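Input (structure):
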């Protein structure tokens, strides 16, 4: 599957952005079969988990974004979204979407567990 992430930009602290990740699913494989996730990587730091949404649309969040970010998916559009509210300067990073068909729940938080990645979209939050 190919992933295309977009929607990043420059926003002031307290503002909002919505990221989108459009998937071109493999032939014969439904988008519904994939667990979809967002990771981010700030300069000089390792890539870290942000949020995931299961095949059943159950969401999972990293603690620092709970209550501020919302992950959702539209299976008819093969797209996953990340609505980011109350943004903070520490949210500044390149955000990547990821997908995997065979990942298990305990591995949702691990970047190494995902086979497919988008190209990343930069989010900059100014103070």
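Output (sequence):
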């Amino acid at each position: 599957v190919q992933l295309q992430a977009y929607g990043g930009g420059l926003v002031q602290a307290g503002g909002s952005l919505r990221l989108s990740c459009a998937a071109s699913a493999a032939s014969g494989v439904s988008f519904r079969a994939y667990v979809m996730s967002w990771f981010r990587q700030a300069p000089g730091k390792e890539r870290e988990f942000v949020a995931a949404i299961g095949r059943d649309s159950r969401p999972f969040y990293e603690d620092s974004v709970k209550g501020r970010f919302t992950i959702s998916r539209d299976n008819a559009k093969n797209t996953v979204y990340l609505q980011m509210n109350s943004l903070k300067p520490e949210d500044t990073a390149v955000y990547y979407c990821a997908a995997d068909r065979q990942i298990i729940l305990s591995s949702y938080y691990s970047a190494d567990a995902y086979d497919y990645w988008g190209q990343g979209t930069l989010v900059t939050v100014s103070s």
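Notes: The two ends are 37 Å apart (CA to CA). The chain has a mean pLDDT of 95.
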